[in-house]
Design goal:
It is a single chain. By secondary structure, the protein is an alpha+beta fold. The chain is about 30% helix and about 20% strand. A hairpin with a 2-residue loop joins strand 1 and strand 2. Helix 4 packs across helix 5 and helix 6 crosses helix 7. The longest helix has 14 residues. The protein is globular. About 5% of the residues have low confidence.
Length: about 325
């Protein structure tokens, strides 16, 4: 299986787990995954209708995966520094004094992947509407340059770029980080640590600009040796009990909304806590392509995002 978080994929087989940095669009166009016949998945009809035909696993009406979980890239923050939740992503993009009277320089983080350019574009959609950004994944040359300029300026205040969730958890606990883009997973672990919460209490929010987000999809390898077993696993993956337990552990929203009720780990309030009501505020991760729908002149493709984000991280 490929369990995909849109931008990256994790290849699962009987021997274990392997991380593969391949955007989903490339997996499908490269014929690395095969179509999934949803008629062979009895519980398909229980999947959230908002996810059933999502563009990250459906091409020309053909399904290439089964939704697994979803969530927002939230703004995590230290509640001692921010008595009230930050209203804008500005606290991590622009140098400023925070509510505790100290500068944010060296106290904030940003994600280190190319797709983070979309976070900058999303912020600019609201801060500079004159740029005409309609979709943070569909950027003209001018819009793309503005996003890169913002990220280059941001580099001056970022203490560390994060990628490893557990390193970020330690940075919030021990390294003075007070605000960053994050996943609910890190927030859940920090909030469950009573000692850490007494010292550095953490909250999270989706600011007024909205947020980027992710939707995991389980996909089948093009050369899957046991497709019958694979279909049984796909059916099992959307079992309400599994879905509820997964959402409780990661801080995500189940792909099967019936899992939101009656799960001991998640509790009946868990889906609300994990952001089930934020769906319309999220711009879900997807692969930027040159031939885009919102810009007549075309858009900057993903390979440029990769090379340019490496340059930003390197101070160029």
């Amino acid at each position: 299986f490929f369990s995909s978080r849109r931008r990256h994929t994790r290849f699962r087989n009987v021997t274990g787990v392997q991380t593969c940095a391949l955007p989903i669009f490339r997996l499908i166009s490269g014929k690395r995954v095969q179509p999934v016949n949803v008629d062979l998945i009895p519980s398909w009809k229980t999947v959230d209708e908002r996810l059933q035909n999502s563009p990250w696993h459906t091409v020309d009406g053909v399904h290439y995966g089964v939704p697994y979980q979803w969530g927002a890239n939230v703004l995590a923050y230290n509640t001692k520094v921010f008595p009230e939740a930050p209203k804008s992503w500005a606290v991590v993009f622009e140098e400023q004094n925070l509510p505790d009277g100290k500068s944010n320089k060296g106290r904030v983080q940003a994600f280190d992947g190319p797709i983070y350019i979309a976070d900058a574009a999303l912020y600019l959609m609201h801060k500079k509407p004159e740029l005409g950004i309609k979709d943070p994944y569909e950027l003209t040359e001018e819009q793309y340059k503005a996003a890169l300029d913002l990220l280059r300026a941001q580099r001056g205040i970022v203490g560390r770029y994060w990628h490893d969730a557990f390193i970020q958890i330690d940075d919030f606990k021990n390294e003075g980080v007070v605000a960053s883009s994050s996943w609910p997973f890190q927030v859940n672990i920090l909030q469950a640590d009573k000692d850490a919460m007494a010292k550095t209490p953490i909250g999270s929010t989706v600011p007024e600009e909205g947020a980027t987000g992710w939707a995991d999809t389980t996909m089948m390898h093009a050369d899957a040796p046991h497709p019958n077993c694979a279909y049984k696993w796909l059916e099992h993956s959307i079992n309400p009990k599994l879905q509820g337990d997964l959402a409780a552990w990661f801080g995500s929203v189940p792909a099967v909304l019936s899992a939101c009720k009656g799960n001991a780990l998640l509790t009946d309030a868990g889906c609300d806590v994990n952001g089930v009501g934020n769906f319309e505020k999220i711009h879900f991760w997807r692969t930027p392509v040159a031939k885009c729908t919102s810009q007549e002149a075309g858009c900057v493709p993903y390979y440029r995002w990769v090379t340019d984000m490496i340059a930003v991280l390197g101070g160029r």
